[in-house]
């Protein structure tokens, strides 16, 4: 068994143990955790500890890098999408979201508490869905996505683009394109965060090869409006950021 397989086996075994322990705990709930005297954030923090999320994820400089860093997860992801993902991680098998994360036996109230912990709000507040952008705006966003060269590295599901530029030597360009995320699930992102990221990606990921090819804020908003309509699993009408 090679090192990679051994590592994945160890992670899978650890996830199994975490789920099993969670089931056991749920059958004998901690009275303190269930107490109404605890606010939602504190109950969520205890759930985060109970399910040993820190065994794979890092948060505020603590934990491990096997999973996604959860420090800024609330700023990046919509709470309603996060809820759906926590319920069924295996629903998202796309390349950049392949996961060994197990599904946890969370009740509706526990999901609310855990999301409150991530969002740092006293209660789980998910914004109502906003109307989908106008078709003309989506069309303009698609054209801008192509004209600003985003297609050099990113795919959007099975979409075909006429312009696919290259900014690096062939081997490096191919490697960057292989590793760049497929953006068909961009609707999971908070709109303001996504636009801020596209505007200045280096502020979020120092040293990233991604760059803003001169797109202004208005153009980036239209690009996101296009991307937010491409998800095969989440309605386009629910893409907007939280208030």
> How far is the N terminus from the C terminus?
50 Å
The best one-word shape is globular
Q: Give the uncertain stretches in residue-range form.
A: 1-35, 123-128, 234-243
CATH architecture of the largest domain: Orthogonal Bundle
Strand content: under 5%
Q: Which CATH class of the largest domain?
A: Mainly Alpha
The number of helical segments is 11
* Element-level helix/strand string: HHHEEHHHHHHHH
| Integer average pLDDT | 77
Largest sheet: 2 strands, antiparallel
Explain this structure.
This protein has 243 residues and is mainly α. The chain has 2 domains: 3-119, Orthogonal Bundle (Cytochrome Bc1 Complex, Chain D, domain 2); 135-238, Cytochrome c-like domain (Cytochrome Bc1 Complex, Chain D, domain 2, Orthogonal Bundle). Helices cover 46% and strands 2% of the residues. It contains 11 helices and 2 strands. It has helices at residues 3-27, 31-34, 40-50, 73-76, 79-87, 108-119, 135-147, 170-179, 191-199, 201-204, 217-227; strands at 58-59, 62-63. The chain has a two-stranded antiparallel ribbon with strand order 1-2. A hairpin with a 2-residue loop joins strand 1 (58-59) and strand 2 (62-63). The longest helix is centred in the first third of the chain and has 25 residues, at 3-27. The chain is globular. The chain starts with a helix and ends in a 16-residue tail after the last helix. The model is unreliable at 1-35, 123-128 and 234-243 (pLDDT under 50).
């Amino acid at each position: 068994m090679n090192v990679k397989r051994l590592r994945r086996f160890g992670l899978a075994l650890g996830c199994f143990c975490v789920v099993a322990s969670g089931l056991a705990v749920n059958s004998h709930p901690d009275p303190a955790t269930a107490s109404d005297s605890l606010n939602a954030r504190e109950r969520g923090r205890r759930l985060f500890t109970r399910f040993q999320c820190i065994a794979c994820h890092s948060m505020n400089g603590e934990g491990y890098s096997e999973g996604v860093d959860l420090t800024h997860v609330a700023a990046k992801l919509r709470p309603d999408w996060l809820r759906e993902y926590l319920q069924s991680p295996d629903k998202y098998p796309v390349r950049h979201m392949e996961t060994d994360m197990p599904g946890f036996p969370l009740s509706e109230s526990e999901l609310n508490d855990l999301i409150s912990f991530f969002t740092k709000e006293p209660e789980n507040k998910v914004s109502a869905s906003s109307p989908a952008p106008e078709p003309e705006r989506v069309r303009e966003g698609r054209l801008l996505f192509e004209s600003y060269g985003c297609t050099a590295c990113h795919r959007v599901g099975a979409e075909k683009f006429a312009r696919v530029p290259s900014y690096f030597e062939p081997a490096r360009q191919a490697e960057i394109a292989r590793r760049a995320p497929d953006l068909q699930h961009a609707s999971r992102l908070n709109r303001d965060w996504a636009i801020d990221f596209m505007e200045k990606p280096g502020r979020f990921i120092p040293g990233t090869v991604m760059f803003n090819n001169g797109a202004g804020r208005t153009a980036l908003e239209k690009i996101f409006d296009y991307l937010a309509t491409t998800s095969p699993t989440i309605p386009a009408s629910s893409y907007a950021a939280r208030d």
